[in-house]
Structures are given as structure tokens and as C-alpha cells.
Design a protein that fits this description.
Elements: E1 3-7, E2 10-14, H1 23-27, H2 30-33, E3 36-38, E4 41-45, H3 52-59, H4 63-71, H5 77-85, H6 100-112, E5 116-120, H7 125-140, E6 144-148, H8 161-169, E7 174-178, H9 185-193, E8 197-201, E9 208-210, E10 216-218, E11 225-227, H10 243-258, H11 262-285, H12 292-305, H13 311-319, H14 329-346, H15 350-356, H16 361-395, E12 404-407, H17 416-427, E13 431-436, E14 441-446, H18 453-458, E15 464-469, E16 473-478, H19 483-492, H20 498-501, E17 503-507, E18 509-510, H21 518-524, E19 539-552, E20 558-564, E21 570-575, H22 579-590, H23 592-599, E22 606-619, E23 622-632
Helix pairs in contact: 3-4, 6-10, 7-10, 7-11, 7-15, 8-9, 10-11, 11-12, 11-14, 13-16, 14-16, 15-16, 16-17, 22-23
């Protein structure tokens, strides 16, 4: 029988014979109260308050799970219930989006009148998915619809005059944008002049002018309808949704208009369930916060993807070697999504759209393999481009800037965003990577949590010929002669402090390894899917001891160690990080002689403090607890 003892405002269970750490000696030790610097990162233990015991009893969960939920700012019975058990019934009504009624009325009239409708999307995963959702949905309602996805190099982002002219020449009556359009005021005005009706569906920030009193004068395009949750007058409860989910909401509302009888209801549901997968895929790829409705969409979408209704998505999962039952948000964000994006970066995004439209398994597998191959090439190009960016930043002394602006004329413009993300990770600050396009300079930016990229760019908009984005990412076009002035002004306007730029690791719970059980690991799955806004939990323990170790893996880049936490219990611990750096740390901690003994199979005793995540290792049909080390000091 487990014994219980209070620690702070929670109750932890220890197995008989385990040594209970003193409240002031472990849980509130100086080590975990104060900030600790390891590899430029600061560690903090989160200390948000709640009655964890009460929450645990009410929802039949471990007190640790209750604490983790509170750490994610999920409070109140309704929010906790939705977080743990939320489903399709908890999704918000499409009609809550401003102008949704106008968009549906306009499109219903056009469909009933047999007008030609053209969907114009974007070349990233969100735009591709949004285009497919609208095409499938409009077609299911009987529309005469087609799609055009701009070419990254030839057309650039979003609507342009050429696309508008082509639509008019092709006899198109109505243009529906997705994942773009909110900033296309002049292009939409031109379309109206040519007799086109335009419906905007987007999720990006609305452009604005700043008044003399500092107020913002938002500039909506003069379209027949503008559906964008970022509109100031939109009261949709979950504003940070991706372009594909906005498109999904429009299709959902349209299908309600066209499919109301029981005979056709099952067909409507099948369409919506397939499109739910695609909206979930885009939500992860576009780095939307997995909170509220987004989390439910991804949770339900992942379940659908395990037996996907979409032949193309099913083939991509297969070609990438992912077991459908093991599919997670990680696979979407780091394996499948990059394949979808690669085609728009190095070729044309039409091929990715064709994947989702596949009519046979053979066709789907062929296209999926093409996308994977393109992504493999993209990876090699990204490594080279990132190395060039780092060399440029170091040689020019740009690392002293609080906002990094790297101009790399020879780098393929499609890789700017990825490289900007890598630079941001390395230096821990907002980064723009600019490349030379066919006309002027094009670039992408990736931000940190404390820096709203779109708003900061708005204070420098005189340098841009075109720009758009949101808090964490943005795209731009500009004249080459303005690059230096842009870098100077974006830094001059930057108010980030050194504290803002410090990498921070927020530890959820300082928890002994001996508290970990298979049951707790299973309960942690209640928190999934993990991603932006719903990060994977991080635990910490002071003073564990490495007793033995070895190096594993095809590339000899995984460390496996036997450790104890002083309770008399022993655990397997693995580390997938930088083994060379870890070994240097161990040498500093225990000496080269002891580290040589460690890897030669001899017993050692090397103390350290770790942050970790518990997992279950499955090998040859057997399951065992495993500690995955995420950091050390």
C-alpha cells in the first residue's frame, strides 16, 4: 500500500520503503527556486495554485495531471471538462464568425445560378489544405469550382493583378480566397472593376494605419464578405485558428444549407469528417496554439487520420514509414507537413493539392513518394543555407542585434522561413532571412513569444512593397536598397530586454523518479495532442546518480544509462540530445577517468540534476518504464 505525504499544496504518493524528500530539502530547494543556467537556458519551476486534490478526485486523475492542467491555464469545471473530454459537440458554430452569413448567402446564390467559382489559396500546407477543403466542400454543394495556387517565385504570396486578370479572362464570376486576401485591398478593388465578386477567407492580421492619437484604423478590403477571426469586430471565441479551419467552417455552414434530409446527411458527415482531418493537419503545420477549439480539432482529426478517409494523406503516412496507430502531432509537424510544404518550396504546390485529390492508391503513393523525395532535397539545401546564415551573422557581428536580419542573396527564397526558424532557435531572438527574388528581395521572419512580429513590422512598413503575417511568423517583399535601413530601424524600434531574450525552460513539477508509474504515463496521454500552446510536460529531479551507461543507435548518437534517485529504485534513462556536449559536462562533473569507466561497462556514481519526461519502452513484446532526459545541470 502506498503512503501519502503533503508537499506544498499537492499530495504525492511514494511506495513503501521510499525516502520522502523533505519539503524544504527537495521540492523548495534553492536549486529549483532560483534560476539555473544550462546551455544558455534558465530553468523555472511553475507554481500556479489550485486545489489539485479536489480536481484529481472530481475527474479521477492523478494530482500530477491536475497540476499539469493548471499549468496550462485550464481553470474552471467547464474548461477542465473540455480539455479532458472535449469532442465535436464542443466546437464553435461557424455562424459566430463575422460575415459568415454574407459569405454563405453570396456563394449559395452563385452556386444556384451556375456561376463559375475560383478558389485562390497559398503555396504552404495551410493554403493547400484550405484550397482542398473549399474545393471539396463547394463541389459537394454542386458548385462549378476550380482552384489556383500561386507559384511562390512567379506569383508570390496571395492575390495579385495577374491572377485577377486570368480569372476574368477564364470566365470566372466569383473568387474565393483562402489563407490570404485580408491585405489584398487594391487587388480586390481591381477585381471588382473587372466584374468579379470576391469572398475573402483568411486568418492573418488585418492591416491598419496608426492615427495621430495612436489609435488603429483597420483597413478591410471591399469584398462581398470578409471572414477572418482577426477582424476587430469579430467575436469568434477562438481567434487563433488557421486558414484551413476558417475554410472548414465555411464549408460546414454551406453544407447545412444544401444537405438537410436524413438521406443525404450521412454523405455530408463523411465529407466533413474527411475535411476535419485536413483542417487538423493544417492547424499543426501552421503552428496554431493547441488550445480550446484547435486542440479538439487536432485531437479528433488525429483519430480520423489513423484510418484516413483521404487516399493522399493515407499514402503520405505510409511512404513516410509511420504506423497509423502511432500517429501524433509530432509526425504532422516534423515529418508529413514538411513533405507537403516541400512541393511549394522547390516546385509547384499544385502537386501537393493533387495528392489530396488522388482517386486511386497507386496515384496517391506515386505523388506521396515525389513529395518525400523533394523534402529530402529540401533538407540538404536547408542545412547548407543555415550554415551560410550562421557564418554571415558571425562574420558581420549581427549576433549583437536583438532582431536578426540576414540577407542571403544566393539562398533559394523558398527556404527563408525554415532557415529563419533555425536561426531563431540558435540565437534565441526574432530572425528575418532575406533572399534575392526575381524582382527585389523576398523574405520570411520567425519570432519568439515576447515579440509580436507583425505589429513590429508595421512600424517599418515604409520599407516593404508587400508584407503580412501574425505574431510568430511573417513574410515580406522589399527593395534591395532598403535592407540595411530596415535592419537598423527594426532594431531601433525593438523594446526586447535581455530577460525577454533568455531561453526559459518551464518545469511543470519537481517530481521524484520513484513517483513515476506505468499508470501515470498512460494518464499523461490525456494531455495530448502536444504542440504550440500545449507543450509536452517537463519534470525535474535533483541529485540522481548515473551508475552505468552505453552508447546506442545506428549512428551511435543515443545514450542509455542506469540511474537511481536515492529511493532504492533503479531506472533506465535515455538521452537523444547532443551526446558530445553531455560527455563534456560529465567530464567536468566527475573527471575523464570516471567517464571512461562509465562507457567501458564499469559501475560508476556520477550525480546530476535532470529535467525529463517519463515514457514506456516497448521491446520484443515487453514494456518497461523509461526516463527520457531533456536537460541536465
Amino acid at each position: 500500500m502506498a503512503m501519502e505525504f503533503p508537499v506544498g499544496d499537492s499530495i504525492y504518493k511514494m511506495m513503501p520503503g521510499a525516502k520522502a524528500p523533505a519539503a524544504e530539502g527537495f521540492w523548495h530547494s534553492t536549486l529549483f527556486r532560483e534560476r539555473i543556467q544550462v546551455s544558455m537556458a534558465k530553468w523555472f519551476v511553475m507554481a500556479k495554485k489550485a486545489d489539485f486534490g479536489k480536481i484529481a478526485a472530481k475527474y479521477h486523475i492523478d494530482p500530477v495531471i491536475a497540476r499539469l492542467i493548471r499549468n496550462r491555464d485550464v481553470v474552471g469545471d467547464e474548461e477542465i471538462y473540455k480539455y479532458l473530454k472535449g469532442g465535436r459537440e464542443d466546437l464553435y458554430a461557424p455562424s459566430l464568425l463575422k460575415d459568415m452569413d454574407k459569405a454563405v448567402a453570396v456563394l449559395k446564390g452563385k452556386i444556384d445560378g451556375g456561376a463559375r467559382i475560383r478558389i485562390i489559396g497559398d503555396y504552404d500546407a495551410d493554403g493547400i489544405c484550405a484550397s482542398y477543403i473549399l474545393l471539396k466542400g463547394l463541389t459537394a454543394c454542386g458548385a462549378k469550382a476550380d482552384t489556383v495556387i500561386p507559384h511562390r517565385v512567379k506569383d508570390g504570396y496571395g492575390l495579385n493583378e495577374t491572377l485577377i486578370e486570368e480569372a476574368a479572362e477564364d470566365g470566372v464570376d466569383t473568387v474565393v480566397t483562402c489563407d490570404n486576401g485580408i491585405a489584398a485591398t487594391s487587388q480586390i478593388a481591381y477585381g471588382k472593376k473587372l466584374g468579379l465578386t470576391v469572398v475573402v477567407t483568411d486568418h492573418h492580421e488585418v492591416p491598419y494605419e496608426e492615427g495621430e492619437d495612436g489609435s488603429r484604423l483597420y483597413q478591410l478590403p471591399d469584398a462581398a464578405a470578409v471572414v477572418d477571426p482577426k477582424r476587430e469586430d469579430c467575436t469568434y471565441p477562438c481567434r487563433n485558428i488557421c486558414g484551413a479551419l476558417v475554410a472548414y467552417k465555411l464549408v460546414q455552414q454551406l453544407l447545412e444549407e444544401y444537405v438537410q434530409s436524413e438521406d443525404t446527411g450521412s454523405g455530408k458527415n463523411e465529407v466533413l469528417e474527411e475535411l476535419l482531418e485536413i483542417a487538423a493537419f493544417a492547424t499543426v503545420c501552421d503552428l496554431m496554439e493547441l488550445k480550446d477549439e484547435n486542440r479538439i480539432i487536432v485531437k479528433c482529426g488525429l483519430e480520423n487520420m489513423k484510418q484516413s478517409r483521404n487516399l493522399g494523406l493515407k499514402a503520405l503516412i505510409e511512404v513516410c514509414g509511420i504506423e497509423p496507430e502511432q500517429l501524433s502531432s509530432y509526425h504532422i509537424g516534423f515529418v508529413l507537413g514538411p513533405c507537403m510544404n516541400a512541393t511549394g518550396r522547390l516546385d509547384t504546390a499544385k502537386r501537393a493539392l493533387e495528392l489530396l485529390q488522388s482517386k486511386s492508391r497507386a496515384e496517391a503513393v506515386e505523388i506521396a513518394q515525389e513529395l518525400k523525395n523533394l523534402n529530402d532535397i529540401r533538407k540538404e539545401m536547408t542545412v547548407k543555407g543555415t550554415e551560410e546564415a550562421i557564418a554571415h551573422i558571425e562574420e558581420e557581428g549581427l549576433f549583437r542585434d536583438r532582431v536578426l536580419v540576414a540577407y542571403l542573396p544566393e539562398v533559394h527564397e523558398s527556404l527563408a522561413g525554415i532557415i529563419a526558424g533555425r536561426i531563431r532557435e540558435k540565437y534565441g531572438r526574432p530572425a528575418f532571412v532575406l533572399t534575392k527574388g526575381e524582382e527585389g528581395v523576398k523574405g520570411s521572419g520567425r519570432s519568439v513569444e515576447s515579440y509580436h512580429m507583425y505589429e513590429e513590422m508595421s512600424s517599418c512598413k515604409e520599407f516593404f512593397t508587400k508584407y503580412g503575417g501574425h505574431k510568430m511568423a511573417a513574410g515580406l517583399s522589399m527593395r534591395e536598397k532598403d535592407v540595411k535601413a530596415f535592419r537598423e530601424k527594426i532594431n531601433e524600434k525593438c523594446s526586447l530586454t535581455e530577460a525577454d531574450l533568455e531561453e526559459k525552460i518551464h518545469i511543470d513539477v519537481a517530481m521524484p523518479l520513484s513517483y513515476v508509474t506505468k499508470e501515470l504515463v498512460q494518464e499523461l496521454k490525456l494531455l495530448e495532442p502536444f504542440g504550440e500552446g500545449n507543450r509536452k510536460p517537463v519534470f525535474a529531479q535533483k541529485d540522481i546518480h548515473i551508475l552505468n551507461g552505453r552508447v546506442m543507435g545506428k549512428n551511435r548518437n543515443v545514450g542509455k544509462y542506469g540511474v537511481t534517485d536515492g529511493s532504492g529504485n533503479y531506472f533506465d534513462m535515455v538521452y537523444f540530445g547532443d551526446l558530445e556536449a553531455f560527455d563534456k559536462f560529465l567530464v567536468e562533473r566527475a573527471g575523464e577517468y570516471m567517464v571512461n569507466r562509465l562507457y567501458s561497462g564499469e559501475r560508476v556514481d556520477i550525480p546530476l540534476n535532470v529535467i525529463y519526461y517519463p515514457d514506456i519502452n516497448k521491446y520484443k513484446g515487453k514494456e518497461s518504464l523509461q526516463i527520457v532526459m531533456k536537460g541536465y545541470c
